[in-house]
């Protein structure tokens, strides 16, 4: 190994926020189905919005995947100086994967709105780290309004 290269961590830290979108029903399935593969190379923490909780079966998520909700953002600190969850998750994660990225959440991100844990993380994210986003359905990426909104973010 070259002297100037940093050693890779034993496991990458993967943050998986999921917005309020009906396709989020499939969110727990790939994580659960891929659990054996994912947890071999990554430590995973998931973030879901209040609306997305309607579609998530918390019991079916693997026990080693920590699930955070909007309520956790407000319950983890009590006074100025305490750790703030969205900042701690930003520091913790090597990679952020937002899937599915709904048009609603994309619009919030483009407008700089931070009304839930997911959008607070995105606003605070260190973009020198990897960020991946997938649309909520196959036709969204071809809509002109999606491209206009996405151009504000990129």
UniProtKB/TrEMBL annotation:
<dbReference type="InterPro" id="IPR003382">
    <property type="entry name" value="Flavoprotein"/>
</dbReference>
<keyword id="KW-0288">FMN</keyword>
<dbReference type="GO" id="GO:0010181">
    <property type="term" value="F:FMN binding"/>
</dbReference>
<keyword id="KW-0285">Flavoprotein</keyword>
<keyword id="KW-0173">Coenzyme A biosynthesis</keyword>
<dbReference type="InterPro" id="IPR036551">
    <property type="entry name" value="Flavin_trans-like"/>
</dbReference>
<keyword id="KW-0456">Lyase</keyword>
<dbReference type="GO" id="GO:0015937">
    <property type="term" value="P:coenzyme A biosynthetic process"/>
</dbReference>
<keyword id="KW-0210">Decarboxylase</keyword>
<comment type="pathway">
    <text>Cofactor biosynthesis; coenzyme A biosynthesis; CoA from (R)-pantothenate: step 3/5.</text>
</comment>
<protein>
    <recommendedName>
        <fullName>phosphopantothenoylcysteine decarboxylase</fullName>
        <ecNumber>4.1.1.36</ecNumber>
    </recommendedName>
</protein>
<keyword id="KW-0341">Growth regulation</keyword>
<feature type="domain" description="Flavoprotein">
    <location>
        <begin position="40"/>
        <end position="119"/>
    </location>
</feature>
<dbReference type="GO" id="GO:0004633">
    <property type="term" value="F:phosphopantothenoylcysteine decarboxylase activity"/>
</dbReference>
<dbReference type="Pfam" id="PF02441">
    <property type="entry name" value="Flavoprotein"/>
</dbReference>
<comment type="similarity">
    <text>Belongs to the HFCD (homooligomeric flavin containing Cys decarboxylase) superfamily.</text>
</comment>
<dbReference type="GO" id="GO:0071513">
    <property type="term" value="C:phosphopantothenoylcysteine decarboxylase complex"/>
</dbReference>
